[in-house]
Specification:
Blueprint: H1 2-44, H2 50-56, H3 61-89, H4 91-109, H5 115-143, H6 146-177, H7 181-201, H8 215-238, H9 243-265, H10 279-294
Helix pairs in contact: 1-5, 1-6, 1-7, 3-4, 3-5, 3-8, 4-5, 4-7, 5-6, 8-9
Length: about 300
């Protein structure tokens, strides 16, 4: 009888442990996907409010473009440096700090009474989003076991794709009853919710041996990527041969070239340029760039 009981308990223990692990992974995935939706939805949500903004703030076409895309420039320019800081300081810590920055900037945007103030708030929201986004994926890959990591990343990818649609739908519902400011209020509320969920449900993972922070590479990548996105936006607005567009493209080429040269000389660059020699990595990166340029 004793042997039977021991055998039964030993059979049930792995099942109970496995169930607890699955629940823990599910709540971590929920928290990270919620934070991801906050970042991605904010790219698309404001597009529906552009006509109202043009009327209420007497905004020019250029101002409207930067109200929408100042967020994208800041996100693109800062996502690599903040991702590296999260690896060193703790991914959850940087992510939660990002939700605070995002939420405060979004709340301030709801009270903006000029296009300049709204653009500044959108850039600050983009900086907060850059603190949030890299931690969502790296927390999943760090906290999930190898056999479940692929499913977690696939779920993350699905929410990344669905985030834009969620942003459109939510913005449409809000604009049906309230004005454009309600979009920013809702974003602030979601930021508080996402930050609280991440703090309560996700582990604070970090690299055990992160190495020296690549300060020069961080600066060059921020300038290069930011200038590239700036040139794309201005090219669509002013024309591809406009001096401002060409200047942005020139700065991007110069900064990214300097980054590659610097990265090849360092033992621990921010993002190793040699990775782009891998066919799969290069093809995936190029595909994502083309998709975002098209959007």
């Amino acid at each position: 009888m004793t042997d039977l009981l021991l055998s039964t308990n030993s059979d049930q223990a792995p099942t109970l442990t496995s169930t607890k692990d699955q629940r823990r992974h599910h709540v971590v995935l929920f928290a990270m996907c919620l934070a991801l939706v906050l970042v991605v939805a904010s790219v698309s949500a404001l597009n529906l409010a552009i006509p109202d903004l043009a009327v209420d703030l007497a905004a020019s076409n250029t101002a409207l473009t930067w109200i929408a895309d100042g967020y994208t420039v800041a996100l693109a320019a800062l996502v690599l440096p903040f991702g590296a800081l999260g690896d060193r300081w703790g991914r959850r810590r940087v992510l939660v700090a990002g939700t605070v920055v995002f939420g405060l900037a979004s709340l301030a945007a709801s009270f903006a009474d000029s296009t300049t103030a709204l653009i500044v708030c959108r850039v600050a929201m983009g900086a907060g989003a850059a603190m949030i986004m890299p931690g969502t994926l790296s927390t999943i890959t760090a906290s999930f076991p190898p056999q479940q990591r692929r499913r977690g990343v696939a779920t993350w990818s699905g929410f990344a794709a669905a985030g834009a649609i969620i942003g459109f739908l939510a913005a449409g519902l809000l604009l049906e009853r309230w004005g454009w400011a309600s979009i920013f209020v809702a974003s602030a509320v979601l930021a508080v919710t996402a930050g609280g969920a991440a703090f309560a449900l996700a582990p604070d993972t970090r690299d055990d041996h992160p190495g020296r922070f690549d300060l020069g590479g961080s600066a060059l990548s921020a300038v290069g990527i930011g200038a590239l996105v700036f040139a794309i936006i201005e090219g669509a607005e002013r024309g591809w041969t406009h001096p401002i567009t060409l200047a942005g493209a020139a700065v991007a080429v110069a900064a990214l070239t300097a980054y590659v040269i610097s990265g090849l000389r360092k033992d621990e660059p921010l993002l190793d340029p040699r990775l782009f020699a891998l066919r799969g990595f290069a093809a995936g990166s190029l595909t994502i760039v083309v998709q975002f340029m098209a959007v």
